[in-house]
Amino acid sequence: MYIYIYLLIEGVLASLLCQDGKFRKLGEYLLFCFLLFLTILVVFRDGIGADYFTYVMHFQNTSDITELTTSDFLLLEPGYVILSAILRYLHAPFEILSFLLLIIIILNFKKVFPYFSSNLSLSFFLYVALFFLSFNFNVIRHGVMAAFVWNACHYWLESKKVSAIFLLVLGALFHVLSLTFLLIIPICCSSKRYPIYIYILVLIFSFFIAKYPDVILQIFDRLLVPLVGTDNRLAFYLSGGHEGELNEVTFSIGLFFNIFICFISLFSFTDRKRFFLSNMLFVGIVSFLVFNSFGALSQRLASVCYIANIFLVPALMSKVRISKWRFCFFLFAVLYGILMFWRELTKETGYYIPYQFIF
Question: From which residue to which does the signal peptide run (predicted)?
């Protein structure tokens, strides 16, 4: 537990120092140390995360690159399998795989953060607080996919659509849901601004579907499931993780925070980037509600879109002109990040506590 408390303290302190020009260099140094510490936690963990032993087992059971068969690709996407197979051929340990996956995430976000964020240190802290534990300890392939998707968003907004599509395909090599963003990104990039009441009506309808999901369940059962056939990965997402029951976290504080940030952003920003971020966040909210009865599907799609939060919150903070109120906004954002981090950390199904190193 103490190691996570230290992680939060270092992250908050680094982000806070970066807000003041006098201490910016010290803050940037602490941010580098923060990133290094995160890398150590990811690479040298032992038994941390609900899926840790499953990932280790898959890695150990993967044939090396010269002996791969179709059976190696039955449960996991080809990119993850091939990378594992190369490392197996080189007799590298699982820790090297963890390191390489983290590097892939970092290299993608290295372009994304400067492009979307008006406050890099705060965005970085919010990413760690809201997504780090899940993306790097549990749903690792999903975390890699999310990084590719957001890099694709950056290229799409720059009108480099071929590069964006290529990145989405690369993301699909680690998680098949990357391909859904071939549709989502163009929708969010639309220059047409709909009246706010359209967003409100869609949101109300989404809440209705979340509460009474029988209609959407029947559509999936009759139309999509037969098309899936025997694909284990897609069948998992369409099989109804909650079997028609309302997801227990639907009406959580996190959802209403996302709704608040989304609508404030829609009112506050007119530039293309921020409008895109607002739309991505809105799509995440709607996806989470509409596909609520399919627990894995709703959470996977929504979490990728929710990354928009880490860029919208600093953008909203920058619009506060009075310094003391801007500082209060900063403290509120940090406090929210800490609460969400603590909530994820203390989940019984997370298996984050106690932290153990391999050595």
Answer: none
Q: Which residue stretches of 19-139 are H helix? A: 24-43, 52-61, 78-89, 94-116, 120-127, 133
Closest to 81 measured CA to CA, from 108, 59, 101, 100: 59
Using the structure block, give the residue that is written with the tokens 């932290």.
355
Q: What are the extents of the domains in the chain?
A: 190-319
Q: What is the dihedral of CA 264, 266, 268, 274, to 10 degrees?
A: 120
Give the C-alpha separation, 355 to 351, whole Å: 9
Instruction: Give the residue from 130, 84, 85 showing the smallest Cα distance to 307.
Output: 130
Cβ-in-10-Å burial (0-12, 13-18, 19+) of 321 comes to exposed
The predicted structure's pLDDT at residue 41? 96
Q: Closest by alpha carbon to 43, among 140, 122, 148? A: 140
| Mean pLDDT per 10-residue interval, the chain, length 359 residues | 94 95 93 97 94 92 87 84 94 96 97 97 97 91 96 96 97 94 94 88 90 68 56 52 43 84 94 96 93 75 95 96 93 95 90 92
